[in-house]
Amino acid sequence: MDVGIVILNWNTRDLLQRCLETVLASEGDFTYKVVVVDNASSDGSVEMVRTRYPDVKLIANQHNPGFAGANNQALALASGRYSLLLNPDTVVDTWLQLSREAGSPTKAKAAAT
After folding, report:
1. Is the distance from CB of 73 to CB of 59 less than 8 angstroms?
2. Is residue 3 within a helix (H) or strand (E), and if so which, with residue range?
3. Residue 68 and residue 77: Cα distance in Å, rounded?
4. What is the DSSP annotation of 72-94?
5. What distance in Å separates the CA atoms of residue 62 and residue 33, rounded to the nearest whole number?
6. Could you give the CA distance from residue 6 to residue 78 in angstroms, rounded to a whole number?
7. pLDDT (average), residues 3-25
8. Over the stretch 15-40, which tens digit does the pLDDT of each residue have?
9. Which residues lie below 8 Å from residue 56, measured CB to CB, with a gap of 6+?
10. Residue 28 and residue 38: Cα distance in Å, rounded?
11. Angle, nearest 10°, between helix axes 45-52 and 13-24?
């Protein structure tokens, strides 16, 4: 797998949904896996991911381990050649352009708003 995409969430259901819509609608000549870590949200985020995005790996924490702890949980599962950490308010309009021949992260280009 080329890119492990990590999205950390805490009570940002609607923003997370938009982020996942744009990430999953993206195309490129690379493979990727999306991992969402939810830090004990109370806004229905976990149910939304489970229902609408069954192919997304979801870690539903029962307590909030904080930013670093949750990202470390996801990075252990993402396991791509490259890792991309996104905030749930990210809207991807020009996706990661990663050529398999790039060979290094410095040659990868990303554009997101």
Report:
1. yes
2. strand 3-9
3. 15
4. HHHHHHH--SEEEEE-TT---SE
5. 23
6. 7
7. 95
8. 999 999 999 987 777 788 999 999 99
9. 20, 24, 34, 35, 36, 49
10. 27
11. 30
Q: What is the pLDDT of residue 103?
A: 52
Beta-bridge mates of residue 34 = 5
Domains and CATH numbers, the chain: 3-111 (3.90.550.10)
Is 39:69 a contact under the CB 8 Å cutoff? no
The predicted model gives 65-77 an average pLDDT of 94
Q: Which amino acid appears at position 78 of this protein? A: A
Query: Among 29, 38, 28, 46, which residue's Cα sits nearest to residue 73?
Result: 38
SS3 18: helix
- Look up the pTM and report it: 0.83
Measured CA distances, 105 to 13, 31, 99, 110 (Å): 30, 15, 10, 11
Q: What is the mean pLDDT of residues 78-99?
A: 79
DSSP 8-state code for residue 10:
S
Q: How far apart are CA 67 and CA 50, in angstroms?
A: 22
